[in-house]
Design brief:
mainly alpha, 0% strand
Length: 231
């Protein structure tokens, strides 16, 4: 396994959870500090993915554009909970790897919340959105899953419904519940299932209808500029 992949997993399972826990203990508008720390932590595996060479400006511009597209995909669609952002985040992970998917997902959550409103939930959204991109990067690396419309759509639906969605619900559990019990946790997950299902259906539909075309464009960009390399 690549060093950047190991670093990504360590950041996901250790550093970010520790940062989120720390954020719950800080007073006031500490979510800005927590969000900044998460971005800094994500930069380590992201830059390690370049394997010793310095990233060129054009490569960073490509990821900036992907972030902008994902942000628009969340902000521009007026239908509640029916957002295209997750589809673009997952495609980023599929095309450029887990490090890029994680980074684009986290930045999408942070920046789009300047439209929706920042809050203590923002770092948790960064964590969950980034986790979706990371999972896609690992799942489709080395041909583990076929990069075809139906498999991508099914993966996007299931990943959003049972991975990203529950991680988002964790913010309610740790920030809103005064007492965490099995019953209260299950209540939160069940109450969020309908919202997660709508988002999952949106993600699946986009990947089924446009996923292959969008991925082909990203693959051409990756082949031309060598962004993060290929596995």
């Amino acid at each position: 396994m690549k060093k950047s992949h190991i670093a990504t997993l360590l950041v996901f399972f250790l550093l970010i959870p520790a940062t989120l826990f720390l954020g719950t203990k800080l007073p006031g508008r500490s979510f800005y500090i927590t969000g900044t720390l998460i971005i800094l932590e994500l930069m380590l595996p992201f830059f390690m993915a370049f394997e010793g060479r310095k990233p060129q400006a054009r490569e960073l511009v490509i990821l900036s554009v992907l972030c902008a597209i994902s942000i628009v995909g969340r902000v521009a669609i007026p239908i509640p909970h029916f957002k295209a952002a997750f589809a673009f985040i997952l495609l980023t992970g599929i095309a450029f790897g887990p490090e890029a998917g994680f980074m684009v997902g986290a930045i999408t959550a942070l920046v789009s919340n300047f439209f929706y409103g920042q809050g203590a939930y923002t770092p948790w959204q960064m964590f969950a959105y980034g986790a979706g991109g990371m999972l896609a990067g690992f799942a489709f690396a080395k041909g583990r899953l076929p990069r075809k419309p139906l498999p991508m759509a099914v993966f996007g639906l299931l990943a959003t419904l049972f991975w990203v969605g529950p991680l988002l619900d964790c913010s309610t559990i740790f920030l809103m519940l005064t007492r965490i019990t099995l019953k209260s946790v299950l209540t939160v997950f069940f109450s969020g299932f309908y919202i997660n299902l709508i988002q999952a259906l949106c993600t699946g539909v986009i990947l089924l209808t446009a996923g292959s075309s969008l991925l082909a464009i990203l693959d051409r960009v990756n082949q031309k500029y060598g962004l993060l390399g290929k596995e």
